[in-house]
Amino acid sequence: MSPVPPSDSARPYHHGDLRRAILGAALDVIAAEGPAALSLRDLARRAGVSHAAPAHHFKDRTGLLTAIAAEGYALLAAALDAADDLRDAGVRYVRFAREHPAHFQVMFSPQLLRGNDLELTAARALAGERLRAAVSSVSAEGRGDDARLAGVAAWSLAHGFATLLLSHNLDGPVGDQDPDEVFHALTGMLFRPGRP
Known about the structure:
- The chain has 11 helices and no strands.
- By secondary structure, the chain is mainly alpha-helical.
- The protein has 2 domains: 15-58, Arc Repressor Mutant, subunit A; 60-190, Tetracycline Repressor, domain 2 (Orthogonal Bundle), CATH 1.10.357.
- The N and C termini lie far apart (81 Å).
């Protein structure tokens, strides 16, 4: 008589990359329903693991959202690092928001995050450094006397456009046009083309 194979419940559970699976499921929920709909218990169910498994990686809901924000800032820093100039950095910022809407939403909701998290603060600082580098690529004549305020202006323009785009407030004005091209044209209207 051959031995009876163990039942599914008797087999030890193995998940290749539970942390990544939980992050992916969380990003899906946030993109569809917003961060308020996020529940570690629901994410565990979606991943097919015990309800305590996500807490092993993230401790709590705030830890999970903080990990998402840190990952988002790292992705944004990488996108900005490849920019040719300030206008290109703005286009890349808008593209990042479109391609990573859940990250984008969480990154700029500080009330949801553990602000003193080292991974988050390092990733946020790197993204800020990339934006400042793009601003410093503009001549002093082009950016004015205050480089810090020029950075705030550039960030405000890109962030505002991205936020309006993601919330569908620009569906009419942008229509079927490529948002990257629309943003590039918008910056051309506001800044003299002769300036870098």
